[in-house]
Amino acid sequence: QQQVKQSPQSLIVQKGGISIINCAYENTAFDYFPWYQQFPGKGPALLIAIRPDVSEKKEGRFTISFNKSAKQFSLHIMDSQPGDSATYFCAASRRASKLTFGTGTRLQVTL
Amino acid sequence: GAGVSQSPSNKVTEKGKDVELRCDPISGHTALYWYRQSLGQGLEFLIYFQGNSAPDKSGLPSDRFSAERTGGSVSTLTIQRTQQEDSAVYLCASSLDPLNIQYFGAGTRLSVL
Fold it and tell me: Which parts of chain B register pLDDT below 50?
């Protein structure tokens, strides 16, 4: 059972544009929603995370928007840069224990 | 400080052989997790340790898979009688406690021929 659905599978954005990646979850017991960034040959690294008591969290160029009623959350990357080219995973967990990951989005930022 | 260290970084083995994958978590991190990353399945949870105990083994795909953690530190994931479908990147993560950020190692890429 796919508990966290992520889209799109891949994304090409021009430098300076906005990258948007969406995730939807099924388990209403989830209470922690992190986004991880992964470069080739490296492990995933935490980018930003949100808990369901807030609807938005911003850290620099990265923003998570959270819609509890729709059971959806999204990552927005403003002013996308070539260095942002990586694979992004959304995830969810209950009490920040084991993570259930989305299938990943490969982002390419072109010049 | 040092991050999560995994060894070997790459492992090629023949079908039917046993393999051991090692994880050295960040010092002082009590929680340790194993995940598997494969092309068709994405990132899947395998097992979680709190200290030396494994309260959640629900992700282990078969009884060929086992893991242990000793001294509240190093963990070893063992796969017996490897199959081609075991080919994947095995990732280890640790956190200060279960409520904290999980930090991942670079993984062990396992190829079963």
Answer: none
